[in-house]
Design the sequence.
C-alpha cells in the first residue's frame, strides 16, 4: 500500500508540475497571467490528435510539430492581441481570459466530446515496483516532468536569452535601461509557456480522454500550484506539486475523489491568507507592496 | 536643554535576500530640525525612508515617533498620525485634476480628525494648499489634469499632498531630482516656510549644494551604515565621506 | 513651415458649447440636446412592461434577464473602478441565489424577506471570501474570482450539498407580470444612479485614486484594504440581488447560477458599453442580452461570440460604445497640420 501511495503520489505531483510549468513560466518571466493556458493545452491535444488521426503521422513526428505550433500560436496571440494592451492590467487580464474561453468553448461547440478523442501512450505495458503495478506511461510522465523542469532551470540560469528574461522579470526598469526589449521578452515567455502546455498535454492526455473541462482543470491546477509555490520559483513549483500531488492521492484514497477540488481551493485560499507570496515566493514584500 | 526627540531610530536593519540594505542604523531627530540624508547610490537611503514610514517591514530595530513605537504600525496609520512622505518617483493621480489630487489625503478620516474636523469645503482647501506650494491660484494650473503637469509642478504637487496631511514630520525623498535650477530656487522658500511653521524636515537628496542651504544637520549613509553625522561642512570634510562618493559630488561641493 | 504631418484635433460641437452652463435653458433645442438621450431611454424602459399585449411574455422575460445582467454589469463596473478585475461575477450571482434558496427552504420565509436577506447575506459571504486577496497585487483578485465559481460548482456537484447537481426547486415565487418587472426596473435605475453619484463624490474619487496609484493613497493616510473591502461589499449587493430576484422568478437555484456565462456576459457588457459611468454598463447589457437571446439557437456558440467580441473591443475600442457615442455627440474631429 505504501508503495502505491508513494509512487502514484509522485506521478500525480509530476502531472501537476508539468501542467503548471508553462503557466508559471509565463507569469514569472513576463508578469502575464495567461488565462489562455488551459485553452492552449487543449488546443495542443486536439492538434496532436488531428495530426495522428487525420494525417496519419507517427507520434514522434506529430509531437514536435504540435509543440512548436502551439508555441508559435502563443507568440502570435501576444503579437496580435496582448502587445496592444501591454501595461493596462485590466485589458491584459480580460484579453487572455477571453481568448482562453473562446478556444475552449469553440471546441465544445464544434462537438469534440466523445470517446474517440484519445492520445496514445508513449509505451505500452507496465512494471512492478515493490507491491505496486505502475504502467510505463506514468513513469514517462515523471521523467518528462523532471526533464522539462531541468531544461527550464538550465535555460533561465545558464543561457544568454534565459538570463536576459530572468533579469527582465526581476527588475523591468533596470533591464529596460540596459536595453533588453520588454515586448520581445514577453512574447518569448508566452511562446515558451504555450509550448510547455503542449508538452504537458501530449504527455498527460493519454491517461484519459480529451474533454473540454480538462481545459478549465488545467487552469485551476496551474493557479493552485503557482500560488502555493510562489511565482518565479522552480523550487516552489516542485514543492507545491509534491504537496498537492500527495495530498490529492491521499484524499482520493481515504476520502473521496472530489476532494481534489477542495484541496486546490484550500491551497489557494490558505496560501493567500497566511503567506501570499507562496512557499518560496520571491516577492517577499508582496503584502506591503500591495 | 535636553529635548525629547520627535523621531528616534535605533538599530534599524533590513536584508533583501543576501544583501543588507540597512545595517543597524541609529538616528535622532529633534522637533523642528531639518536633517539631510545623503550617500551614494545604493547606500540604503530610500530603504530607510520606507522603513521609517512603514512601507517596508524592518528585520530588526525600532522606530519611535513622539515616544510611541511605530516599528510595526501600518503605513497608512503612520501617515495619518503625523509623518508624511513624498515619493522619489513622483506619480500623481493622473486621471484627476491637480487640486483633486489633494482631496485624497483630505478625505482620510484620520487626517480630517487631525485637522480637528475643519471640514469646510474640501475643494477650496485643496486649492488653498496648492497655493502654499506655489501653484498660482489665478492661473488654470490647479485645474489642469495632473498627468499634464510640467515636471516641476509634479514635485510640488507631491509636496502639497504631504502638506495636506497636516504633518509634524515631512520626509522628502529626492525632492530636487529632475528640477531645474529655477524650480529648486522656487522650492526653497516653500521649504523655509514649512520650517517656520514648525514642521520637522527629513530630506533624502543627491543635490548637495541645494540641500545644504536648507538643513542644519546631515547624515551620510554608505552600504546601509551611517558613516558620518554633523553639520554639512563637518561632514563633507570627513575622508570616509569623500571616499564613498569617489569624486562625483564630493569634488563639486567640498 | 507647415509639415506633411497632421494630428487629430477634437473640438466641442457648437451646441455642446452653447449648452454648457446656464445657457442650457436658453432654447428648446439646447434643452432637448441635453436631455433627449436620457429621457428617451428611460421612457422606453418604463413603458416596456405595459406593452405586454404587443410584445409577448417572452420578450418581457428577456427584459428581466437584461436587467439582471445590467445589475451584475454595474457591479463589475464598480469593482473595475477600484482596480479590481472580476473574472467571476457568477460568484456573487450564485451566492445570492444559493443564500436566498437556502433561507427559503430552511426558514420558509416569503420572498419579500428572503430577497433582502439573501442579498445582504450573499454579499457578506463573498466579501469575506475575497478579503484576504485585497491586500495583494491586482492579478490575485482576478485569479481567485476566476477559480472560485469553478471550484464551488465541482464541490457542490460532488458533495451534493445545497441540492447538488439538481439544485433547489420549488422555491416561493414573486408576484409575476408588470409589478415584478417594475420593481426590478426601479432597483436597476436606482443602483445605476446611486453608483454614479458615489463615483462622482469624494469617496468615489478616493476609490479611483486607489486604482490609479495605491501607494500614494496609503501615503495619504487611507487604509486601502478596508476601502477595497467596502467597495467589494457595495459591488456585491447589486449582483447578489440579481441572483436572488431571478431565483425567485424561476423558483430555482442551482449550479448554473455559478456558470461561466454569468461571469462573461456582464464583463462583456461593460467592455462593450464602456467602463466608468453607469450608463456604459446599461448600454452594453441592453445591446448584448437581446442579441444573445436572438442567438439562442446557437447554444454554446454564444459564449464563443461573447469572448471574441470581448477581445475585439478590448483591443479595438477599449473606451466602449457609450464613451464613443458621447464623444461623437459632443465633439467633432478634424485633422490639423502640425505646426
Sequence:
Amino acid at each position: 500500500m505504501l508503495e502505491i501511495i508513494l509512487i502514484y503520489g509522485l506521478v500525480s505531483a509530476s502531472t501537476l508540475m508539468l501542467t503548471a510549468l508553462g503557466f508559471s513560466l509565463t507569469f514569472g518571466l513576463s508578469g502575464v497571467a495567461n488565462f489562455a493556458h488551459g485553452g492552449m493545452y487543449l488546443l495542443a491535444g486536439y492538434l496532436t490528435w488531428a495530426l495522428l488521426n487525420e494525417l496519419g503521422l507517427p507520434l514522434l513526428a506529430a509531437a514536435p510539430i504540435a509543440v512548436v505550433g502551439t508555441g508559435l500560436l502563443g507568440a502570435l496571440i501576444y503579437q496580435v492581441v496582448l502587445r496592444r494592451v501591454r501595461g493596462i492590467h485590466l485589458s491584459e487580464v480580460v484579453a487572455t481570459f477571453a481568448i482562453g474561453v473562446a478556444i475552449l468553448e469553440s471546441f465544445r461547440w464544434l462537438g469534440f466530446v466523445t470517446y474517440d478523442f484519445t492520445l496514445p501512450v508513449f509505451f505500452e505495458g507496465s512494471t512492478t515496483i515493490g507491491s505496486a503495478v505502475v504502467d510505463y506511461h506514468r513513469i514517462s510522465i515523471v521523467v518528462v516532468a523532471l526533464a522539462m523542469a531541468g531544461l527550464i532551470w538550465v535555460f533561465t540560469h545558464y543561457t544568454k536569452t534565459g538570463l536576459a528574461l530572468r533579469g527582465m522579470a526581476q527588475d523591468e526598469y533596470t533591464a529596460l535601461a540596459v536595453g533588453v526589449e520588454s515586448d520581445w521578452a514577453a512574447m518569448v515567455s508566452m511562446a515558451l509557456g504555450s509550448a510547455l502546455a503542449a508538452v504537458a498535454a501530449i504527455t498527460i492526455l493519454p491517461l484519459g480522454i480529451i474533454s473540454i473541462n480538462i481545459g478549465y482543470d488545467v487552469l485551476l491546477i496551474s493557479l493552485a500550484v503557482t500560488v502555493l509555490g510562489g511565482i518565479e520559483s522552480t523550487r516552489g513549483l516542485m514543492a507545491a506539486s509534491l504537496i498537492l500531488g500527495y495530498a490529492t492521492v491521499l484524499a482520493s484514497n481515504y476520502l473521496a475523489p472530489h476532494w481534489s477540488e477542495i484541496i486546490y481551493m484550500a491551497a489557494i485560499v490558505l496560501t493567500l491568507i497566511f503567506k501570499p507570496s507562496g512557499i518560496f515566493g520571491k516577492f517577499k514584500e508582496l503584502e506591503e507592496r500591495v | 536643554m535636553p529635548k525629547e526627540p520627535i523621531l528616534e531610530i535605533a538599530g534599524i536593519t533590513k536584508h533583501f535576500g543576501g544583501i543588507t540594505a540597512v545595517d543597524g542604523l541609529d538616528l535622532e531627530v529633534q522637533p523642528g530640525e531639518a536633517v539631510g540624508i545623503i550617500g551614494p547610490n545604493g547606500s540604503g537611503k530610500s530603504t530607510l525612508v520606507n522603513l521609517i514610514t512603514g512601507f517596508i517591514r524592518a528585520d530588526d530595530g525600532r522606530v519611535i515617533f513622539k515616544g510611541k513605537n511605530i516599528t510595526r504600525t501600518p503605513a497608512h496609520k503612520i501617515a495619518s498620525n503625523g509623518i508624511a512622505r513624498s515619493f522619489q518617483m513622483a506619480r500623481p493621480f493622473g486621471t484627476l485634476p491637480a487640486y483633486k489630487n489633494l482631496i485624497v489625503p483630505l478625505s482620510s478620516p484620520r487626517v480630517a480628525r487631525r485637522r480637528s474636523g475643519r471640514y469646510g469645503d474640501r475643494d477650496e482647501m485643496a486649492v488653498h494648499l496648492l497655493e502654499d506650494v506655489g501653484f498660482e491660484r489665478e492661473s488654470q494650473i490647479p485645474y489642469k489634469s495632473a498627468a499634464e503637469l510640467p515636471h516641476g509642478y509634479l514635485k510640488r504637487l507631491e509636496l502639497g499632498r504631504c502638506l495636506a496631511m497636516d504633518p509634524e514630520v515631512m520626509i522628502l525623498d529626492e525632492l530636487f531630482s529632475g528640477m531645474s535650477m529655477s524650480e529648486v530656487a522656487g522650492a526653497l522658500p516653500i521649504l523655509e516656510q514649512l520650517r517656520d511653521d514648525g514642521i520637522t524636515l527629513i530630506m533624502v537628496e543627491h543635490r548637495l549644494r541645494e540641500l545644504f542651504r536648507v538643513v542644519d544637520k546631515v547624515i551620510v549613509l554608505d552600504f546601509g551604515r551611517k558613516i558620518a553625522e554633523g553639520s554639512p561642512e563637518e561632514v563633507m570634510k570627513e575622508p570616509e565621506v569623500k571616499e564613498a562618493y569617489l569624486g562625483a559630488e564630493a569634488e563639486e561641493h567640498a | 513651415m507647415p509639415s506633411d504631418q497632421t494630428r487629430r484635433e477634437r473640438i466641442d460641437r457648437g451646441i455642446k458649447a452653447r449648452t454648457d452652463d446656464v445657457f442650457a435653458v436658453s432654447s428648446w433645442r439646447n434643452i432637448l440636446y441635453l436631455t433627449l438621450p436620457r429621457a428617451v431611454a428611460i421612457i422606453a424602459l418604463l413603458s416596456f412592461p405595459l406593452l405586454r399585449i404587443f410584445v409577448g411574455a417572452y420578450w418581457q422575460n428577456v427584459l428581466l434577464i437584461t436587467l439582471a445582467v445590467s445589475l451584475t454589469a454595474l457591479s463589475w463596473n464598480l469593482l473595475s473602478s477600484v482596480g479590481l478585475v472580476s473574472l467571476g461575477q457568477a460568484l456573487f450571482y450564485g451566492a445570492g441565489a444559493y443564500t436566498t434558496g437556502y433561507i427559503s427552504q430552511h426558514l420558509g420565509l416569503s420572498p419579500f424577506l428572503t430577497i433582502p436577506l439573501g442579498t445582504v447575506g450573499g454579499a457578506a459571504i463573498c466579501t469575506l471570501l475575497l478579503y484576504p486577496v485585497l491586500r495583494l497585487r491586482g492579478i490575485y483578485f482576478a485569479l481567485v474570482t476566476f477559480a472560485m465559481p469553478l471550484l464551488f460548482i465541482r464541490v457542490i456537484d460532488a458533495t451534493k450539498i445545497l441540492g447538488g447537481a439538481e439544485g433547489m426547486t420549488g422555491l416561493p415565487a414573486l408576484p409575476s407580470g408588470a409589478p415584478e418587472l417594475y420593481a426590478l426596473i426601479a432597483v436597476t435605475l436606482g443602483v445605476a444612479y446611486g453608483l454614479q453619484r458615489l463615483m462622482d463624490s469624494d469617496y468615489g474619487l478616493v476609490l479611483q485614486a486607489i486604482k490609479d496609484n495605491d501607494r500614494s493613497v496609503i501615503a495619504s493616510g487611507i487604509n486601502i484594504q478596508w476601502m477595497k473591502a467596502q467597495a467589494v461589499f457595495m459591488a456585491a449587493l447589486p449582483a447578489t440581488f440579481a441572483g436572488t430576484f431571478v431565483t425567485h422568478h424561476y423558483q430555482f437555484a442551482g449550479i448554473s447560477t455559478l456558470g461561466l456565462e454569468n461571469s462573461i456576459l456582464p464583463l462583456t457588457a461593460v467592455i462593450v458599453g464602456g467602463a466608468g459611468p453607469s450608463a456604459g454598463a446599461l448600454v452594453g447589457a441592453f445591446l448584448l442580452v437581446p442579441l444573445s437571446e436572438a442567438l439562442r439557437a446557437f447554444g454554446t456558440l454564444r459564449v464563443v461570440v461573447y469572448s471574441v467580441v470581448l477581445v475585439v473591443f478590448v483591443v479595438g475600442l477599449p473606451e466602449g460604445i457609450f464613451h464613443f457615442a458621447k464623444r461623437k455627440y459632443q465633439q467633432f474631429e478634424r485633422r490639423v497640420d502640425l505646426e
Residues 8 and 28 of chain B are 5 Å apart (CA to CA). The longest strand of chain B covers residues 19-29. The domain at 7-91+168-253 of chain B is CATH 3.40.50.300 (Rossmann fold). Chain B has twelve helices and ten strands.
